[in-house]
Design goal:
Length: 179
């Protein structure tokens, strides 16, 4: 299945291994943290990475467990550092990016959208290598640092007040600038 980043991505923990044989009765167990839109794509991505990294094929292997991982505190805004690799038209590139979101999955969804917009990278060509929560003091990117100011304000400079008793059409323009 070619991955498409449709909708919001979810975080899955996929555990698998090679089937036991006479020569290898206790094969090593591999666990991966996969971001995908659903379970089917998560399993597909697991097999893709397992084949590429550990030479495990789907035919002689098994999935032991697949669980969706939920955020412990989904109401707190956090900074996330994302290390990724993607294939462009000219080659393979490594990259570090920072995102600000309430969940890891939300940050990764932002990452996929951002990579598609800025670098024309398709979802199937992006590989998330590592995701970590980054403290405010360790953030590097200025577009994330600008939100660390505690006295930040978001003014609403152009408000149109709807008055239900006012006539639909008027001879004077409405006042929209308030201090």
């Amino acid at each position: 299945v070619k991955m498409k980043a449709k909708g919001d991505l979810k975080e899955y923990r996929v555990v698998g291994r090679k089937l036991p044989t006479d020569s290898l009765p206790k094969p090593p167990i591999y666990q991966m943290r996969i971001f995908a839109p659903d379970r089917v794509v998560a399993v597909s991505r697991f097999w893709y990475f397992a084949k590429m990294l550990k030479k495990i094929k789907k035919t002689n292997s098994e999935i032991l467990e697949i669980t969706q991982v939920y955020e412990k505190k989904p109401t707190v805004v956090k900074n996330f550092g994302v290390w990724l690799r993607y294939d462009s038209r000219s080659g393979t590139h490594n990259m570090y990016r920072e995102y600000r979101d309430v969940t890891v999955a939300g940050g990764i969804t932002q990452c996929y959208r951002d990579m598609g917009a800025r670098h024309r990278a398709r979802a199937h060509s992006i590989q998330i290598m590592r995701v970590e929560r980054v403290s405010s003091s360790k953030c590097r990117r200025p577009n994330i640092k600008q939100f660390h100011d505690m006295s930040i304000k978001f003014p609403l400079p152009h408000r149109v007040i709807k008055d239900s008793s006012a006539p639909l059409f008027s001879t004077k323009r409405p006042m929209t600038h308030f201090l």
